[in-house]
Design a protein that fits this description.
The chain is 40% helix and 14% strand. It has helices at residues 10-17, 21-25, 33-48, 54-63, 70-80, 155-168, 181-184, 186-194, 211-223, 233-249, 261-265; strands at 109-110, 116-126, 129-138, 144-150, 174-177, 198-201, 277-278. A hairpin with a 2-residue loop joins strand 2 and strand 3 (129-138).
Amino acid sequence: MIDRGHALPIARQARALGISRSSVYYRPRPVGDGDFRLMRLIDEIHLEYPFAGSRMLRDMLRREGFFSGRRHVATLMRRMSIEALYRRPNTSRRHPAHPVYPYLLRGLTVTRPGQVWAMDITYIPMSRGFVFLAAVMDWFSRKVLAWRLSITMDTAFCIETVEEALVCHATPEIFNTDQGSQFTSMAFTSLLEDNGIAISMDGRGSWRDNVFIERLWKSVKYEEVYLRAYGSVSEARACIGRYFAFYNARRPHSSLGGATPDESYARLVPENEAALITAA
């Protein structure tokens, strides 16, 4: 995909292909075998029990035969950018200069594609190291509209993902994220406001506010990521890309009446039809 011997600079090749320049130069970060196994198991437990903090995770790991101290578990959680998810007033790690927007989806009945989009970032383990995956999803249809891999959780790759979604699809009415510094940054919120999109943000640590994309992460990891050991970012990108193509076009959803995300996104559903989504 990237030709390092080509006269065209690598940065321009990456831009033309729509991939993050940093990932082109990336070599998997060295992680000790013991820590890598712990991180993989922590990620799996976190998907099942998102409320588990470092102490609970430490005890769960011991039941699996992994004896590690709470501080080490907390260090690995920070490295993976995950934390226990529950409501905690005034303890957000967002940038203090960034505004936080209200949650607009509570009680809202989502009746059609393009009404609400959501975005989040998750940790992706590789054979030796890890990367981060960002995705934009349509709430009604569950369709993945755009996604990106990056070696860091910076704002730039989040903006690139949203820009791709806006180029390829009609502009949504509402865009929902968590309160991460990438999403509260001026560059990110200005992109949405400049396109006339209302900004919605989850309550602090309230994973249920963005439940559909949390379910997406569980599907991606159990149906794709955990079945492989990616040796490079390009391999991870190719495999995850194939999975999302399957997820959108061929994977039926019981909540969509057995339809696929592509099928649900392609049609405008009348408000009196049974398949309505009401946010919690």
